[in-house]
């Protein structure tokens, strides 16, 4: 179940990130007309906002009907905007925005997979399990490595048609293979009541902040890094996409490691260490260091920190939240993470357009990570400590 869910997450995230590597290319080749940096930023950010807000509803629906139903539905529905882009929208900026809007549906699969996987594992193993599932965000790396090459080498429609075909196969496999965990109980209250109740939990809004910075930072870099590297360092679109893929791979590897470390040492220390690294890495990157040396270390260090922080956030949720509420809480927190990824590309594009420099945007990231580090060590620690301590005592009792 974990393997099939992780593959589904990866395939849908591949689809979700299809437009990002093409943004700089469209600006370079003029296929959509003359585009500004802000135009490119909006184009790559639109799927993120829909995938983020959609998680709120999709997470609650997963609590109700289960991941066995939602995985194939989301995967099948995503095929429609992909084919729309391939056959209708590739020569129109406005239509591509419309296609990208509905392509965001693919990003909601995260809110399907977390409660689905969480239900299959005991509390002491949920951090690692949810972290392994979260590694499916590496689907963005597949997009980064293949989209531009397929677009240039085999035709503009090719990357979209291949992704649509893979999603169709996965939808059939998921419908045939996936099963919800034994003993899963569907909530009986209305969707609105569940959303309201979940939103009032202290851990919900706290995890929203944590994930908005951790996963939001990852998403922001994964969608905007190609444009940033091309503009600020003069890289070709293909080279920029490859380097973005390296960033994604490091973050993906560190996500399950972050979950495993959270099972072993607790999520609070893992989160604190991650935000501290982001504070330093963003500060270094803001000085525009040489990319081949200090700059690469700074960006890969942030990738590792953001990946481990994303895994640790959901390890925290899995450990302190009632299993029946995990889907709803995941939807809200996942939405916050996606929104955290939506805003920075727009800010970076706006700042660069006014200053011809990305420094202010990176300094803002450093300051935001510092405030989140303070929140983690104070309010979040106080909220989580009673539950984590009780679980630790239970696991230490003899059978």
From TrEMBL:
It is found in: Cell membrane. The keyword Transmembrane applies. Its main location: membrane. It is a multi-pass membrane protein. Gene3D superfamilies: MFS general substrate transporter like domains. It holds the Pfam family MFS_1. InterPro entries: MFS, MFS_dom, MFS_trans_sf, NO3_transporter. Residues 1-384 form the Major facilitator superfamily (MFS) profile domain. Keywords: Membrane, Nitrate assimilation, Transmembrane, Transmembrane helix. The chain crosses the membrane at residues 41-62, 69-90, 96-121, 128-148, 160-178, 199-220, 240-258, 270-291, 297-317, 329-352, 358-380. PROSITE patterns: MFS. PANTHER family: HIGH-AFFINITY NITRATE TRANSPORTER 2.3 (PTHR23515). Belongs to the major facilitator superfamily. Nitrate/nitrite porter (TC 2.A.1.8) family. This is NarK/NasA family nitrate transporter.
């Amino acid at each position: 179940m974990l393997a099939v869910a992780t593959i589904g997450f990866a395939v849908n995230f591949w689809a979700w990130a299809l437009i990002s590597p093409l943004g700089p290319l469209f600006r370079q080749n003029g296929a959509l007309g003359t585009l500004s940096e802000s135009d490119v930023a909006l184009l790559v950010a639109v799927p993120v906002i829909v995938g983020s807000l959609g998680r709120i509803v999709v997470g609650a629906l997963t609590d109700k009907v289960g991941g066995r139903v939602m995985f194939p539905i989301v995967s099948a529905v995503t095929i429609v905007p992909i084919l729309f882009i391939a056959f209708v929208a590739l020569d129109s900026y406005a239509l591509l925005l419309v296609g990208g809007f509905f392509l965001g549906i693919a990003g909601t699969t995260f809110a399907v997979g977390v409660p689905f996987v969480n239900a299959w594992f005991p509390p002491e193993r949920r951090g690692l399990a949810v972290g392994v599932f979260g590694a499916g965000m590496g689907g963005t790396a597949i997009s980064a490595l293949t989209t531009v090459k397929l677009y240039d080498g085999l035709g503009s429609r090719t990357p979209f048609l291949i992704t649509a075909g893979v999603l169709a196969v996965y939808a059939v496999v998921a419908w045939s293979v996936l099963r919800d965990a034994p003993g899963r109980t569907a909530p009986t209250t209305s969707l609105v009541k569940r959303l309201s109740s979940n939103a009032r939990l202290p851990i919900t809004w706290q995890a929203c902040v944590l994930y908005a910075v951790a996963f939001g930072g990852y998403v922001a870099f994964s969608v905007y890094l190609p444009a940033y590297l091309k503009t600020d360092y003069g890289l070709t679109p293909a080279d920029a996409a490859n380097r973005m893929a390296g960033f994604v791979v490091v973050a993906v590897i560190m996500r399950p490691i972050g979950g495993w470390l959270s099972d072993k040492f607790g999520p609070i220390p893992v989160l604190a260490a991650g935000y501290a690294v982001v504070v330093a890495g963003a500060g270094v990157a803001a000085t525009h260091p040489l990319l081949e040396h200090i700059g690469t270390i700074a960006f890969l260090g942030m990738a590792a920190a953001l990946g481990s922080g994303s895994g640790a956030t959901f390890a925290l949720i899995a450990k302190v939240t009632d299993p029946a509420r995990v889907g709803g809480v995941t939807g809200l927190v996942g939405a916050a993470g996606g929104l955290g990824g939506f805003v920075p590309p727009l800010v970076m594009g706006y700042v660069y357009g006014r200053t011809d420099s990305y420094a202010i945007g990176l300094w803002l990231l450093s300051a935001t990570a510092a405030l989140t580090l303070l929140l983690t060590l104070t309010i979040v620690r106080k909220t989580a400590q009673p539950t984590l301590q009780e679980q630790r005592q239970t696991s230490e009792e003899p059978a």
